[in-house]
Amino acid sequence: VAAELADPASAILDIERKVTQLTRSGELPVDNFGVPLAGSLIPWIDKQLDNGQSREEWKGQAETNKILNTSSVIPVDGLC
Questions:
Q1: Which of 3, 18, 46, 78 is most buried by a 10 A CB count?
Q2: Locate the Semialdehyde dehydrogenase dimerisation domain: which residues (predicted)?
Q3: Do 36 and 55 fall within a single domain?
Q4: Which residues lie below 8 Å from residue 26, measured CB to CB, with a gap of 6+?
């Protein structure tokens, strides 16, 4: 889909259709996770904490608040 992505006149639904077709074709590697990762997210990284978050989600919130140097915690949810 490189040509379509470079062309501002391309329709996003046509691009999405081609990507979906490739994902379902069986041509993408599935060795490590059992499914193709193209266009996907790895849903769980690291260990689960007592509050139900993964450690990776917690680190996202901790780093955000560290960078922003806030006096009160800004909650960051790892799910959208």
A1: 78
A2: 14-80
A3: no
A4: none
